[in-house]
Amino acid sequence: MDMKELSSILQQNGIVGAGGAGFPTYAKLDERAETIILNCAECEPLLRLHRQLLEKYAKEIIDTFHMIGETVGAKEVIIGIKKAYTATIEAVKAVMGQVVLNSNSRKHKVELLTIIGEVEGHESAPSHSKTTKYEHVLPKLAIIEDDEEIEGLLILLNTVGGDVEAGLAIAEMIASLSIPTVSLVLGGGHSIGVPMAVSADYSFAVPSATMVIHPVRSNGMFIGVTQTYRNMEKIQDRITTFISEHSKASQKRLEELMLDTSQLVKDVGTMLEGKEAVKEGLIDEVGGIKEALAKLYEMIEKEC
Q: How far is it, in rounded angstroms, from Cα 99 to Cα 114?
């Protein structure tokens, strides 16, 4: 979406300021906004509309909010909600993959991190794509590390992969956390999703999960073929080194899987199902949410 389209939408829908003068929002729209704020901190005691709308339509509102932020070039987007609006806060956290599991009989406080769709890097994916934004995940992981009440982290993955730099940054952050971490691959943990899956202290994959391992790819014009190839080799080495250091798979075996030409029709590489990923040493165990949580609780209790 560009500024012209956004301005037209605001004008057609009659969006005006809330200051009482009814000044049209499209007329004061500016591309130079560094920060935009979604204010849900209702000041009147009987007002409930804003919190109820955000609770019921959290995904639609947050997706639109981020789209507007990208259109106006905002470096920061802030959602203001009163602490007392617990249901609204939980709805927003759920959309952003920020859920705390603390209703278990052992009273452990576990943070849930979901990595879905495409891992977005320095460029925004199309608005209709399901994405995980690294600029949201990295601060979240820092907050988790800083929060003394969080005892463990459960990572749920169903990703097609995405930006290499962003994926490795997330994987390195997970691997460096001081609390116990467990990952669970559901559906897919493809491409750069593999380093994120193995970055946890212990990893699971459901039987039907798949993990695609393939060489690094790049699109566009290459000015220096030799130099570009060497650079891509270095990037690939960074990925295979990280995976081999955080799993039982050797770097040599990973390269063999990456260069297999017998499995994928339109690509070079290997697709591993849950049991095969365990056999290759990428994943520790085949299991689901029950096994993943049980293992995480066990690891937490060992540290107590």
A: 9
**Which residues are designated catalytic?**
191, 214
pLDDT band at 99 (very low <50, low <70, confident <90, very high): low
Question: For residue 247, which phi and psi values (nearest 5 degrees)?
Answer: -150, -175
Residues 188 and 209: beta-carbon distance below 8 Å: yes
Q: For residue 8, how far is the Cα from the chain centroid?
A: 32
Q: Is the pLDDT of residue 32 over 80?
A: no
The average confidence (pLDDT) of the chain is: 87
Task: Produce one character per residue of 212-232: b if its CB has 16 or more CB atoms within 10 Å, e if not.
Answer: bbbebeeeeeeeeeeeeeeeb
Closest alpha carbon to 64 in 139, 5, 140: 5
Residue 226, CA distances (Å) to 6, 220, 223, 258 in order: 44, 15, 9, 20
- Please check whether residue 80 is in contact with residue 96, taking contact to mean a CB–CB distance below 8 angstroms: no
Whole-number Å distance between alpha carbons of 58 and 22: 26
DSSP 219-265: -S--S-HHHHHHHHHHHHHHHHHHHHHTSS--HHHHHHHHT--SS-S
Phi, psi of 284 (to 5 degrees): -75, -35
